[in-house]
Amino acid sequence: MKASRLLFPALVAALAACRPAAPAAEEPLVHTDFDSLVGWVPDAATLRTEQAHSGSYAVRVDEGHEFGLTCNRMLGEASSRRLLGVHVEAWAYRTGEAGGARLGIIVSDPTTNTNVVDAGVDLEAQLPKPGQWYRVQEDITFPPTVQYQHRLTTFLWRSAASAPVYLDDLTITGRY
Ligand SMILES: [Ca+2]
Hints:
CATH class: Mainly Beta
Oligomer: single chain
Number of domains: 1
Strand content: 35-45%
Shape: globular
Number of helices: 3
Bound molecules: calcium ion
Distance between the termini: 30 Å
């Protein structure tokens, strides 16, 4: 099953959770330590304090929360130049089996409601052991059809993880 965000319009509507980056192309498109979102985003149910890589908060998915707090930005607002792709970097922590949990990266066309990119970071592959924070990263290439008005959506997805999975210190930079 693909984690299409288009199937979860309510969650997508609940966010705009990322801090706007500076317009310079070299600045990250998305950067958050999740602590800064506390008291700012309308639905902070997945911001938790049991584990954190920085500060007090990280985002958590579990059996009651299929998706973590989602970041959704228009590509043209995030980058002043055409993107060839993005580099995604974050810290992640699993408490049990990762079960296919992933940091999803989707680019969607809002006019056709279709995904142009459906990619992400496979946490099962990048978290060798439970109970430990790991730096995870992935280069994602965009097709030449990506456009200014397309939307970049980033979210932690539980998939079949049987125990909570945490994510913190998310940075997405453009590849040009
Ligand atoms: Ca944090």
